[in-house]
């Protein structure tokens, strides 16, 4: 018989809820700072739609998402390989495992359109400030984002432990959404995800595409070859390849799902259906649309042509 689930030895606070006053306070400070120094940017309508997305994310999560995700977590946990206890070494291992799961979730969320349809919301602002961090998806649970964490439950990390580190990661990633912090202490930049690294992640410049998927630790990008450093000579342009041009939260939340529906219903073969669903964002049967790979390839050709021949 499988051992009972070990109980956490301490009360786990609702980390994200507790962080909300800190979010509000720091957004006000950043707004004032931007006003005074004219460094960074705020657009009221854009910030309002980001806040609406964050609020909607919490509502959907409470009403539906949490139950769905917990059911999946506990179903897998029932079939776990080991029963890991709430000890310090297990918690350290869980922190690293959760961060690695986040890296792969986030990378696939950019590389496969089905997952991109949920994640694109976070990238839909053309601004980069603390409110951008709150621009969160409404379709994460129904978009099966949680599957990337299931291996942790299968290994035997208790579900509340995994959820605790997911919350810590979410709160950690909040403060890196700012243009007011430049480059930090070099050893810190080497190990941790920072404002500089995450600006690159939100940029649409060809040289910055598909980079820095890290949650808390940037080491995963260095390890898997997706790390790109911010270049002081090239300022990031934020947003997505085809900018949305709307502040309507409902259009922001569902536009890519609508796009998938449009494409799939017009597909002429099963190959096209799969291409539109799980191909890279921008995939098209004849290659006529832009994907980040085609944009990067065109940029690389341009760079090569610009180098004068010896
Ligand atoms: Zn992303
Ligand atoms: Zn972000």
Output mean pLDDT.
95
What does the largest sheet look like?
Answer: none
Distance between the termini: 72 Å
Low-confidence stretches: none
User: In sequence order, what are the helices and strands, one letter per element?
Assistant: HHHHHHHHHHHHH
Secondary structure layout plus pairing:
Elements: H1 15-37, H2 44-78, H3 88-111, H4 113-119, H5 130-133, H6 150-155, H7 159-172, H8 186-191, H9 195-202, H10 219-224, H11 249-265, H12 270-278, H13 292-306
Structural description of this entry:
The chain is an all-alpha fold and 310 residues long. It has 13 helices and no strands. It is 56% helix and 0% strand. The longest helix has 35 residues, at 44-78. The model has no long low-confidence stretch (mean pLDDT 95). It has a domain at 15-224. The site of one zinc ion (ZN) has 6 residues, from α3.
């Amino acid at each position: 018989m499988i051992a009972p689930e070990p109980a956490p030895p301490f009360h786990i606070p609702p980390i994200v809820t507790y962080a909300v006053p800190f979010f509000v306070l720091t957004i006000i400070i950043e707004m004032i700072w931007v006003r005074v120094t004219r460094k960074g940017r705020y657009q009221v309508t854009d910030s309002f739609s980001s806040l609406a997305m964050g609020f909607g994310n919490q509502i959907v999560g409470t009403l539906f998402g949490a139950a769905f995700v917990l059911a999946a977590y506990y179903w897998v946990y029932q079939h776990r390989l080991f029963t890991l206890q709430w000890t310090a070494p297990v918690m350290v291992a869980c922190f690293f495992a959760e961060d690695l799961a986040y890296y792969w979730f986030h990378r696939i969320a950019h590389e496969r359109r089905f997952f991109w349809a949920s994640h694109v919301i976070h990238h839909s602002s053309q601004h980069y400030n603390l409110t951008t961090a709150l621009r969160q998806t409404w379709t994460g649970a129904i978009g099966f984002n949680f599957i990337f964490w299931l291996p942790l439950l299968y290994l035997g990390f208790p579900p509340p432990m995994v959820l605790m580190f997911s919350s810590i990661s979410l709160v950690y990633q909040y403060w890196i959404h700012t243009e007011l912090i430049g480059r930090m202490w070099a050893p810190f930049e080497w190990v941790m995800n920072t404002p500089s690294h995450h600006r690159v992640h939100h940029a649409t410049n060809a040289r910055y595409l598909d980079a820095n998927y890290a949650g808390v630790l940037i080491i995963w990008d260095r390890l898997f070859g997706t790390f790109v450093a911010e270049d002081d000579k090239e300022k990031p342009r934020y947003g997505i390849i085809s900018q949305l041009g709307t502040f309507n939260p409902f259009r922001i939340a569902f536009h890519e799902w609508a796009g998938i529906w449009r494409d799939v219903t017009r597909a002429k073969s099963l190959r096209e259906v799969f291409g539109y669903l799980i191909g890279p964002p921008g995939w098209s049967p004849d290659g006529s649309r832009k994907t980040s790979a085609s944009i990067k390839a065109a940029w690389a050709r341009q760079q090569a042509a610009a180098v004068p021949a010896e």
